[in-house]
Amino acid sequence: MQVLVVGTIALDTVETPFGKKEGILGGSAVHASISSSFFSNTSIVGPVGEDFPAEHLDFLKTRNINLSGLENIKGKTFRWSGYYEFDMNQAHTRDTQLNVLLEFNPVLDANLKKTPFVFLANLDPEIQLKILNQLECPKLTAVDTMDFWIKSKRDVLHEVIKKVDFVLMNEGEIRMFMETPNIPLAARRLIKLGAKAVIVKQGEHGALLFTDDYHFSAPSYPQEIFRDPTGAGDSFAGGFIGYLAKTGDLSEGNIRRSVIIGSVMASFNIEDFSLDRMRRLKVHEIIERFDEFKKFSDF
Ligand code: AMP
Predict the structure, then answer these.
(1) So what's the pLDDT on residue 204?
(2) Is 8 near ligand 1, meaning CB less than 6 Å away?
(3) Residue with CA closest to ligand 1 atom 11
(4) Is residue 89 situated within a structural domain?
(5) Mean pLDDT in the chain?
(6) Over the stretch 177-230, which tens digit does the pLDDT of each residue have?
(7) CA of residue 83 to ligand 1 center, whole Å
């Protein structure tokens, strides 16, 4: 397997201006691994409870995702409930029920430990740190987080960031974490903490990549079909790392291309609730949209 994704496997309740859906498939690891699976062989690590519908696992299997790191734990699956107003860039959490996440203490098997590309999706930073400590010479590691963990486990998150290559956060999260409204400055400070590069996700406005040596700005996609932004960040990350793993090329040019691939995957994910657009997505559509990105950002 080329990509390892660790994160939450969830049942979400989501309300947007386009409707409300209860108990739908979600979770940071699910969105990221489905997206990654379009490019690379992907393994998922995360906990599910006894109430997790088998049909969701069947869907992951249809994408050839390796489920050997999926842990069945007695109790209820992680649940998140949130809503979006007209500004769908901003998620509002109504309720987070950690449930089986509280019991989750992953031990990677010999194969998973050797996975070269690792994405630590939004999850308790203590678990992210445990995973990092089990990896045997990864080629590239990336981490995501959210306000929930920044508020409750800031110090552990610092430890995680010291050990990873790429940090992905959205605008609000990086401002909160680095305690400045200025995004380039916040990115600079994050790199000083130890990360090699920072990707700031700006929702429908695109994404920014910062390293010590260069800066890249991915354009926004003029998306007119926009029903549910949940999982956009994770779909971005899955596409980004899945494409890097597929190509094995960590040059600046290819990292820029991977950021665009991430943006393409996020732009599909928001077209429908849960993973519904990803279920119907075809590889030729990804290629066509990638070419569109190229055309409309050329000058
Ligand atoms: P995003 O890509 O940021 O929109 O991520 C959305 C997914 O994150 C949802 O499907 C949720 O199940 C999951 N999620 C929400 N809160 C948390 C949390 N505190 N920790 C981990 N995952 C979460």
Answers:
(1) 85
(2) yes
(3) 27
(4) no
(5) 96
(6) 999 999 999 999 999 999 999 999 998 899 999 999 999 999 989 999 999 999
(7) 12
Q: Is the CB of 10 under 6 A from ligand 1?
A: yes
Instruction: CATH number of the domain at 60, please.
Output: 3.40.1190.20
Give 22: exposed, middle or buried? Use CB within 10 Å, 0-12, 13-18, 19+.
exposed
Q: Is residue 156 part of a domain?
A: yes
What's the CA gap between 119 and 131, in Å, rounded? Answer: 10
Among 25, 31, 52, 80, which is best to mutate for testing ligand 1, by the most ligand atoms less than 8 A from CB? 80
Alpha carbon nearest to ligand 1 atom 1, residue: 231
Ligand 1 and 49: CB distance under 6 A: no
- Our answer on whether the CB atom of 233 is closer than 6 Å to any ligand 1 atom is yes
pLDDT at 283: 98
Give residue 179's domain range.
Answer: 3-84+94-297
Residue 203 lies in a domain: yes
3-state DSSP of 84-146 = CCCCCCCCEEEEEECHHHHHCCCCCCHHHHCCCEEEECCCCHHHHHHHHHHCCCCCEEEEECC
Q: What domain count does the chain have?
A: 1
